[in-house]
Amino acid sequence: MSREPAPLNLNTLLLVPALGLAAVGCWAAAARQLAIAGAATATLFLLPIVFRLLTRTWYRGLVVRGLGLFILGYHVPVFIFAFCARTQIGCEPGNCTGLIILGALVAPIVGLLFTVVYWLVGRPPA
After folding, report:
1. Which positions, given as ranges, span the membrane (predicted)?
2. Domain residue limits, the chain
């Protein structure tokens, strides 16, 4: 019995480069290479927009939900890095701002990743 392989899903194909771009952007932000971080973030932002324009229809609420997920994703690294800075042993208040600044630099990339994943795999509401 010969089974045909299932066709490749475009969403799955685009999630891998999106995750790669987010990783490059986070690495560049951590290394203080803001030009590379900006380029990776801009490319990460353009990826789902071009994909949606070429292959799918936009439905009502898609942009608003994507922006909501951006705001949610934006705050995740800020809270995580602030918590890590707060729990670090030997860190006095005001002296551990390096982790908080790193969280602020990574925050737009993670927020865009949340939006990109939603725009790539999001379905219209029933």
Report:
1. 12-30, 36-55, 67-88, 100-121
2. 10-121
